[in-house]
Specification:
The protein contains 8 helices and 10 strands. The protein is an alpha+beta fold. The protein has one domain: Aminohydrolase, N-terminal nucleophile (Ntn) domain (Glutamine Phosphoribosylpyrophosphate, subunit 1, domain 1), CATH 3.60.20. The strands form 2 sheets. A 6-stranded antiparallel beta sheet has the order 7-8-1-2-9-10, with helices on one face. The chain has a 4-stranded antiparallel beta sheet with strand order 3-4-5-6. α2 packs antiparallel against α3, α4 runs antiparallel to α5 and α5 runs antiparallel to α6.
């Protein structure tokens, strides 16, 4: 019972994903991403092993469609899974098993996929995709959060939300510059936006600390404490 969105920015090469759900700490088991390779979502009765498999296939050079097929084949319980993949070219594919909770839906377009199960209504997924596409001038991270907010405004999940997460990768950057989670909250999407607003001005400093430590700012300078 989760609604998610994943996307690729052709302008920057960034790829990322965001989700919200009534379960605790879903970001730890449903989102997978590899810089320059792609994004995988493994949700509903989530099986993290499928996410690990999907990323491995993308890293081996498989496209999104073949990767998704491999994930479905690998699971004897695929009817309970909802899966999605975006590869480095922006090909987006999704699968919703017959046993996933209704309302359920998936929509793909170039560079984006939105999907959900256990939703309040059939409009949630379409609202997410439309909001993401309408914000094409914004950063990918912002567009993903906007997608979640639109899904919530359209009705969200059938149960009260408790957790949310946002991950983003950049090509040629060895760490994930954005990997934020709200594991348990009464208002997890609002809390994710708050964390994003705090983290956003720190990102470049921490990326530099990874790739160029000799010339990177101290933590206090990154966080504006000095």
């Amino acid at each position: 019972m989760t609604f998610s969105i994943a996307g690729l920015c052709p302008r920057t090469g960034e790829m990322g994903c965001a989700l919200a759900t009534s379960s605790m700490a879903a970001g730890a088991r449903a989102q997978f991403i590899s810089p320059g390779a792609g994004v995988v979502l493994s949700q509903a009765r989530s099986d993290p092993r499928l996410g690990v498999l999907g990323i491995a296939r993308l890293q081996q050079g498989e496209d999104a469609r073949k990767t998704l097929d491999d994930m479905i084949t690998a699971s004897p319980h695929s009817a309970w899974r909802q899966l999605a993949v975006i590869d480095w070219t922006g090909q987006a594919v999704a699968f919703t098993g017959s046993e996933c909770s209704s309302a359920k839906n998936e929509i793909t377009a170039p560079n984006v996929v939105a999907l959900g199960n256990g939703l309040a209504n059939d409009r949630v997924v379409e609202a997410m995709l439309q909001a993401f596409q309408a914000a094409a001038d914004r950063s990918l991270a912002e567009r993903l959060i906007i997608g979640l907010e639109a899904g919530l405004a359209a009705g969200g999940e059938a149960y009260p939300l408790r957790s949310t997460a946002l991950k983003l990768a950049r090509p040629d950057v060895p760490l994930l510059p954005i990997d934020l989670r709200v594991d348990y909250s009464e208002t997890p999407i609002a809390e994710l936006r708050r964390l994003w607003s705090i983290w956003m001005p720190m990102i470049e400093g921490y990326v530099q600390r990874c790739v160029d430590p000799a010339n990177s700012p101290a933590a206090a300078l990154i966080e504006g404490h000095a």
